[in-house]
Amino acid sequence: MTSLSTRGNRAALSLALLASLTIGFASVQPASAAKINTAFTGQSMWIWNMPHTEAGNVARIIARAKTAKLTAVYIKSADGGGSWQQFTKPLVTALHAAGLRVCGWQFVYGSSPTAEATAGASAKAAGADCLIIDAETTYEGRYKAAAIYMKALRKQVGKSFSIGFTSFPYVDYHPSLPYSIFLGSGGAEVNMPQVYWRDIGDSVTTAMVHTWRQNRIYGRPIHPIGQTYQTPSAAELTTFRGLAAGYRAPGLSWWEWSTTSTKLWAALGAKLGPVVVPPDPGWPLLKRGAKGDPVVRAQELLASAGAAGLKATGIFDTATVTAVKAFQTTHKLLADGQLGATTWALLGKVTVAQARNRAVANAAAARAASAAQSVPQSSTLPDRRNELGRSH
After folding, report:
1. Quick one: which H or E segment has residue 135?
2. Helix (H) or strand (E) run with residue 78 in it
3. What are the extents of the domains in the chain?
4. For 73, phi and psi rounded to 5 degrees?
5. Is 298 exposed, middle or buried (0-12, 13-18, 19+ CB in 10 A)?
6. Closest C-alpha among 268, 276, 270 to residue 247
7. pLDDT tens-digit readout, 211-270
8. Most exposed residue of 58, 228, 293, 392, measured as fewest CB within 10 angstroms of its CB?
């Protein structure tokens, strides 16, 4: 998203966080996807500026939403440490009365995480069903700020309040962005990557495959965001909807209301044909020398699974190779020291099994928390590329 100026407690690894890491494409989405807040299910639309959205006419917004079969709207409620006056309780009440779920969304910078948490929490006070955190370029390298923000936000909104997280779709392009904190325990329950294929320069299918392969390691239900700006075709929107359904996304959404043409509104409301299950998107391959937040995620999982003393450095070093080989040997896999599809999947199954025993789960959580105590060395790595090509 574009701005307008514009840990949490990681000591517990939840079942919901890890349930997607099971063998087979049928489990590309977590079992918990069916239990998430209904604001994240179905088809939703983002609103940046209310005065530029149907001229601020709430009745027209409702009518358009009904025609397009929207289930929720995501309205900007805060930017950095400032809440937006457009996100009000009367607005939320009116949209709720029309059967629409309403979430606030906040663009965050990381420079004042405590103030940002307070501004984000204001959406709940206005009656929002959830808050969506939009953290992009300005949050790269800011692991400590992300931890402070999530902890402060959870303290204010509570453990059960629904939170989504949106950012760049190609995780491997952004090695220093703290996905592992925003999507970690106490963080967002839904991962909402911005799959803007025309901005990226890839086809819809290529963009979705890349996004799913890189994001599935975080174990949150993936709710992709498609684009209606840059004049995509109706066929592209239909392809996006079909792939999201085939990948078992709990829902999808579109950026952004004011850029959506009449033709594209019609495409959003059109009935979708039979769902075709696409090929498995695969898993990222990590091996010695790999760097970035996916390695942080892997190291925390390995620590949870029994690699005591392993630190989440974000560098796939000798200690990480040793931990992977030990895990593979224990579970009768080829001990090549690399994290491929089979090892990623089994890491998830082991952690899910741990969660069934409180004492075992607590010990696993303690190991993971110990691994994540310091800022990863990989936090200083630069972007590989800004695939969305916009200023953030």
Report:
1. strand 130-135
2. strand 72-79
3. 15-269, 293-380
4. -125, 145
5. buried
6. 276
7. 999 999 998 999 999 999 999 999 999 999 999 999 999 999 999 999 999 999 999 999
8. 58
Residue 181: both structure tokens together: 């904190």
Distance, in Å, from the CA atom of 1 to the CA atom of 388, rounded to the nearest integer, reads 10
**pTM listed for this prediction:** 0.91
Six token digits for residue 13: 């690894």
3-state secondary structure of 339: strand
Tell the residue number behind the tokens 């329950």, with chain if given: 189
Task: Dig out the tokens for 282 from the structure.
Answer: 């695969």
- Strands 82-83 and 72-79 come out as antiparallel
Asked if residue 151 lies in contact with residue 163, where contact means CB atoms within 8 angstroms, the answer is no
CB burial string 62-73: b at 16+ within 10 A, e below = bebbeebebbbb
Distance CA 358, CA 362 (A): 6
State both tokens at 37: 């807040």
β pairing state of 190-191 and 162-166: parallel
Q: CA nearest 193: which of 392, 391, 1?
A: 1
Residue 252 carries which DSSP code?
E
Give the whole-angstrom CA distance, residue 15 versus residue 24: 18
